[in-house]
Amino acid sequence: MISRAATVLRSLKEHPEGLSLGQIASEVGLPRSTVQRIVGALQVERLLISNTSGGGVRLGPELGALAEAARFNTAELCRPLLTELTQATGETSDLSVLRGNKMIFIDQVPGTHRLRTVSSVGEVFPVTTTANGRACLAELPRDLALKHAQTEAAQTDGGFDVDAFAKILDQVTETGLAYDNDEHSDGISAVGFAFRDLSDELHAISVPVPTSRFIRQKPMIEVAVRKIARSVQKVMRAA
Dihedral sign, CA of 120, 142, 54, 8? Predict the structure, then answer.
């Protein structure tokens, strides 16, 4: 029952305008009567509410409260791992979350070098030219990832090669790591990975480094990042 309820909630995640019972049943592959029972139970808990403007139901306010709590817990859970990553590399470690087609920084442990990269918590970064953004896009269905990328590209002056970007995402999927090779900010490169938190939101941990140092330190940083990626998965399973 819980897994079916979760499936219903996820079906509405991409439809903020709401869906009818029949549409939900079609999306999740369950009988309409089963969907009706699940939706009724979720409405009692305010996890779903009636969509008065267009009929059907949409995600309810209680989910927002749960999501806020989960976001705090994600930063709290990851803080020791960010610290460990910074201690292992001497470089800044960032935690960010995917919001639509943007990355938002939610925590950071500054590096120990005099020349280091620093971003403000709450700062917004693009998805197509950053290691954390590419890592998160690679975790999405490819058509949705490319839609986000094209939306972002349309807001800039530069051209956008969909096929070339799709190959970048393929490489991220294959290796588990995403890179920014001096593409977002001149003189700064980065490596990162993505993961889903307890509320199924996509986050990324990344290590931005001055490019001159990144070229020399890249193998060491990759080893440290992969180790933290394994630790994140263990922490999320245990939480």
Answer: negative
Cβ atoms 169, 142 nearer than 8 A: yes
Distance CA 43, CA 58 (A): 10
CB burial of residue 67 (10 Å; 0-12, 13-18, 19+): middle
Return the DSSP state at 142: H
pTM exceeds 0.85 for this model: no
* Tokens coding 203: 């986050």
Strand partners, 19: 57
User: For each of the chain's 239 residues, which pLDDT tens digit applies?
Assistant: 677 888 888 888 767 678 888 888 888 888 888 888 988 888 888 888 887 666 688 888 777 666 666 555 888 899 999 999 999 999 999 999 998 888 999 999 999 876 556 666 678 899 999 999 999 999 999 999 998 898 888 877 667 788 999 999 999 999 999 999 988 888 999 999 999 988 788 999 999 999 989 989 999 999 999 999 999 999 888 76
Determine the 3-state secondary structure of 146 from DSSP.
helix
- Which candidate, 213, 162, 161, 152, places its Cα nearest to that of 184? 152
214 and 221 in contact (C-beta within 8 Å)?
yes
Distance CA 239, CA 234 (A): 9
46: closest CA among 64, 60, 56, 67? Answer: 60
Specify the amino acid at residue 124.
V
